Amino acid sequence: MSIREYELEGEEMNRGLIRKFENLIQLRGACWQLRTLSYRKVYRAQWKPVQSSAHPVWSVLLYPQCWQKDKLISIALSQRRHLATKEETKKKKKKVPLTKGEVEIRQKMTIEELARAMGKDIDHVYEALLYTDIDLGSLEPDSILREDHIKLIVKKSGMKYKSAKLKEEKERENTDAVKRPPADPAVLTPRPPVVTILGHVDHGKTTLLDSLRKTQVASMEAGGITQHIGAFLVHLPSGEKITFLDTPGHAAFSAMRARGTHVTDIVILVVAAEDGVMQQTIESIQHAKNAGVPLILAINKCDKPEADPERVKKELLAHDVVCEEFGGDVQAVNISALKGENLMVLAEATVALAEMLELKADSTGLVEGTVIESRKDKGKGPVTTAIIQRGTLRKGCVLVAGKTWAKVRFMFDENGKAIDAASPGIPVEIMGWKEVPSAGDEILEVESEQRAHEVVAWRTYVEQQEKMKRDVEVIEAKQKEHRMEYEKKQKKLAHLTWRQRKAVLYKANKHLMFSKPKERTEIDKNVLSVIVKGDVDGSVEAILNILDSYDADSECKLDIIHFGMGDISETDITLAEAFNGVVFGFSVKANESIKQLAAKKGIKIKLHNIIYKLIEDLKDELNSRLPPSVVENTIGEASVLNIFSVTVGKNKVPVAGCRVQKGLLDKKMKFKLIRNRDVIWKGSLSSLKHHKDDVQVIKMGMDCGLSLDKYIEFNIGDEIICYEEKEVQQTTSWDPGF
């Protein structure tokens, strides 16, 4: 064989070895690919064997003599670069920078995401999870971790964590509507005074208004108490006009009274001549002072024999209300609202004070006003009663109030008569609102519907931002609290293995995990969940203000799960069922289908037309949630006069010779032994005898011998008390203030 043939044969063998080596490299790359696919759960990955650009395989084939170890390694490694998916490319580009070992975490992170944030591999996270009670067999790289586990993994890795910040939005331009600058005094024109009637409950405020405007408002009011703010325009014989705000006189409506004084010019303080100054009278005076509004004193019910107007004036001195006859500046008028006495004198005093105040307003330009009352009407939709303070309101005007807006469709006066315009100082009922605004909201006119949308959007945005800030503060506080609790638990369980920790936690929570629905209800029995529905916004607010004063959570927790306006709906019943709650309605209705649904689901619906009746009913519900208290009722008392013992079997039993001093002793009842005013024993009698005969009852004045169900030595002078235990329903200590 020639040399050339040897060379060709050697070259052929060389090529065979190269092919085998290539196959081995490809096999190794395939094994890595299969391992990664199964471990990382990466789907839809494509097989892409990538040759090294620096050392391609064909170069090895052509130049076998140039094989080197490092080149072979580079070729082998190149075969592993097979997962060229878009997702992995993005992940490789986005490397999370670590600042001094801090890891930015967020809720609901997966194992894979946490590993990337820490700059570690998944195996590291799995290793750290060994310190928790998680079943590692159920975890995958895309499994979501709890926040406490995320924090523990970071800490076990020797790093610190920080919560991911919300993305900062670009600062939005303020597009809110604002009041116009003060008007030129030259364009101001006189306007009617806005007068608020304040005073104690049942002192005659509604009767006074009724007499002034010659309507029957008082007869329509439930229980004789005004239930929500109303605004009325009164025309006097002299041609003057006065706008009255009739705020409720009940203590429950202090917030509504306070709001009424912010739009008023004059306050008429009604005090009953026979009752004098009461709690709500003092509150009304304080509201007027805070608002800087002048007072006129109307001493009502002066026609009654027990009336004493002078006493009322003197009592008011203690509250810095000084009448003119005592050198002050407060006009005092004695009236009888029921009989109509001196009402014109009171009206003239009001007009005179208004003239002194020189009340004027600008009736041109964009409208400004205040919502006095808001409600949902079935036929009219959202409706508001408002006082116009600037400009002239007409049909078609676009208004904003709070986070809602309106294009005025119709306007009505206090008698329900349609009107075309409302000038400053005039009360008006407005239709056309998209939603019901809150009582007390400021009304501003804007140029167009588009502008109204901008204003509402801005106000909604501001509210959301404020809510987010509050929520973040609450969340951080809760997280800190939970972290401290968790760390305390971990310290207690630190000496245990993770299996032992799991067993301890299981035992601690076992009673809750396997409790039946009825048993869970018993656990939450001392919680009263309520839903409050009212006819108007002001009424709902008044009820909520009363409930805000609830201070007996230690006895029974009061939880307001929902409140709103309108009749009782199916949603209210469903919500009440979910929370085992009670639905309270004020001046609203529940149709028959709703009542049947509530009865079927066992939900109570409590409807009332008088505020204090609703609160009393709510207190009864609270009382029903309280556990009964056990009270001892004494039936008889006996004194120990002699001591002896008898032998029963091998035991000696102490016996007391007694005489019944009060009532009787009944063997079936419970007894207690008192010595030097201390209770020594409580229990039952083992025997009760009279002249060696066993008896059940020993009456007053009779002697007897008795022994106890427990071995106790008697002393002469001891007292034996016979009593029975009775369960008495507890009452809540909450006092709503009326």
UniProtKB/TrEMBL annotation:
Its main location: mitochondrion. Keywords: GTP-binding, Initiation factor, Mitochondrion, Nucleotide-binding, Protein biosynthesis, Transit peptide. It is found in: Mitochondrion. Residues 190-360 form the Tr-type G domain. It comes from the Eukaryota. The lineage of its organism: Eukaryota, Metazoa, Chordata, Craniata, Vertebrata. Residues 165-182 have a biased composition (Basic and acidic residues). InterPro entries: EF-G-like_DII, IF2_II, P-loop_NTPase, Small_GTP-bd, T_Tr_GTP-bd_dom, TF_IF2_bacterial-like, TIF_IF2, TIF_IF2_dom3. Belongs to the TRAFAC class translation factor GTPase superfamily. Classic translation factor GTPase family. IF-2 subfamily. HAMAP family: IF_2_B (MF_00100_B). One of the essential components for the initiation of protein synthesis. Protects formylmethionyl-tRNA from spontaneous hydrolysis and promotes its binding to the 30S ribosomal subunits. Also involved in the hydrolysis of GTP during the formation of the 70S ribosomal complex. Residues 164-186 are annotated as: Disordered. The keyword Mitochondrion applies. This is Translation initiation factor IF-2, mitochondrial. GO terms for cellular component: mitochondrion. One of its GO terms (molecular function) is GTP binding.
